[in-house]
C-alpha cells in the first residue's frame, strides 16, 4: 500500500507541476497534450512516468536536450512521500497542503495564483471552528481581498496574507509564529531580489516541514 500511495502521490505532484506551468503560460489545462516547453514536441508515454522518466532522461528533453528543471523531480518525490502518510486523520491536512502547494507553484512562476484555491481550501481551514469564528474569519478574508485590489503598493501580497490568516486559524498563534520565522529565514537566505519575492513557496515549504515535525 505504501508503494501504491507513493506512485499516486508522484503522479499527483507531476500533474500539479504541469498545471502550474500551464497557468503561468495561460495555456489550457486540457489541450494540447503534454509536450516539451522548449521544442513543443509531444511527449511519449515513457517520458511522462513520474521520477523514473526524469532519471532515464537524465533531466533533459529527449528531443532538444533542453534541461528539465529539477524542481519537477523534487516535487514528484515529495508529493509521493507525503501521500504515503495518508490516513483517515491526515486527509484534511494533506488536502490543505496540496491546495496551497499548487498556489505556491503558480506563485513561484508568476507571483500570482488562481483565487479559487483560497476558497477551495477555506472549508478545510475552518472545519472544526465555532460558527461565530467562521463568520468573522470569512468576513476578514473578504476584507483582505477587497482591500488589496485597491491598494496600489502593498508591502505583502494578498495571497501571503490569506495563507497567514488560514494557517493561524488552522494551527494557532504559537505555531504560526514558529512557521513564519522559518519561512522568513529561508527567504532571507535564498532570495536575491526582495522587492519581487514570491514568498508563498517559502510559506508552504515551512508549513510542510512543521506538519512533518508535529506528526
Automatic annotation (TrEMBL):
Identification of the protein by name = Prepilin peptidase
Family matches, as Pfam families: A24_N_bact
EC number(s) from the headed UniProt entry:
3.4.23.-
Organism listed in the record: Levilactobacillus angrenensis
Q: What is this enzyme's class at the first EC digit?
A: hydrolase
Record InterPro entries: Prepilin_pept_A24_N, Prepilin_peptidase/N-MTase
Which UniProt keywords are present, listed alphabetically?
Hydrolase, Membrane, Transmembrane, Transmembrane helix
Instruction: Pinpoint the Prepilin peptidase A24 N-terminal domain residues.
Output: 7-86
- PANTHER family given in the database record: PREPILIN LEADER PEPTIDASE_N-METHYLTRANSFERASE-RELATED, TYPE 4 PREPILIN-LIKE PROTEINS LEADER PEPTIDE-PROCESSING ENZYME
Bilayer-crossing regions: 129-148, 168-189, 196-213
Q: Provide any one GO MF term from the record.
A: hydrolase activity
Q: Does the keyword Membrane apply?
A: yes
Amino acid at each position: 500500500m505504501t508503494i501504491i500511495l507513493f506512485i499516486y502521490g508522484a503522479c499527483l505532484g507531476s500533474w500539479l507541476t504541469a498545471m502550474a506551468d500551464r497557468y503561468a503560460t495561460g495555456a489550457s489545462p486540457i489541450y494540447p497534450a503534454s509536450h516539451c516547453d522548449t521544442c513543443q514536441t509531444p511527449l511519449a508515454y515513457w517520458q511522462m512516468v513520474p521520477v523514473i522518466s526524469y532519471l532515464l532522461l537524465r533531466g533533459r528533453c529527449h528531443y532538444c536536450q533542453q534541461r528539465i528543471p529539477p524542481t519537477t523531480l523534487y516535487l514528484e518525490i515529495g508529493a509521493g512521500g507525503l501521500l504515503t502518510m495518508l490516513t483517515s486523520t491526515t486527509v484534511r491536512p494533506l488536502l490543505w497542503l496540496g491546495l496551497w502547494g499548487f498556489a505556491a507553484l503558480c506563485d513561484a512562476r508568476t507571483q500570482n495564483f488562481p483565487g479559487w484555491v483560497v476558497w477551495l481550501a477555506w472549508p478545510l481551514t475552518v472545519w472544526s471552528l465555532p460558527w461565530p469564528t467562521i463568520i468573522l474569519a470569512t468576513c476578514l478574508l473578504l476584507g483582505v481581498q477587497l482591500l488589496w485590489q485597491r491598494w496600489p503598493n502593498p508591502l505583502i501580497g494578498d495571497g501571503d496574507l490569506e495563507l497567514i490568516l488560514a494557517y493561524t486559524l488552522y494551527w494557532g498563534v504559537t505555531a504560526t509564529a514558529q512557521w513564519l520565522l522559518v519561512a522568513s529565514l529561508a527567504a532571507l537566505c535564498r532570495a536575491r531580489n526582495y522587492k519581487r519575492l514570491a514568498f508563498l513557496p517559502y510559506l508552504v515549504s515551512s508549513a510542510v516541514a512543521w506538519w512533518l515535525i508535529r506528526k
